[in-house]
Amino acid sequence: MTSKIIPRRMFLGGLAALGAAGLRPAAAQAGPLLQVLKDANCGCCSAWIGIMQREGFQVQAQNVAWATLTRFKAQSGISEDMTSCHTGLIEGYVIEGHVPAADIRRLLADRPDAIGLSVPGMPIGSPGMGPETERDAYAVYLIRPDGGTEVYAQYEGG
Fold it and tell me: Quick one: which of 15, 16, 26, 81 has the fewest CB in 10 Å?
């Protein structure tokens, strides 16, 4: 009968080889950093942040006064009709509201010339806004540098 136990030296040597090759075990790899500004009293913001963390993003959240958050949105190029309850920054892009993780990943992979993504308002069933089975139809918008928008993703009602 052959032993299936890996000797300690072989295990540690394997880890050292992975490190030398620039590779890390999947559990040690961290997703991109998503910095979020939000109102302290907003529960749906916290729910969205939890979803983003479960989706593998590193999240740093900061509670700020509503006036500060509103000013930050405007300075970041988010027009009033594109606003929601929280604003994130990730790898040079602004993420406004309850944007699904898959759309953020697509944005980071495609790297369009854009300010970022927005889900205006707080649509029911969007990430952090209740069950998808009761989802309102909503769109994720790509915000261009000139302030123009286009539909980036569309979600049907549930």
Answer: 26
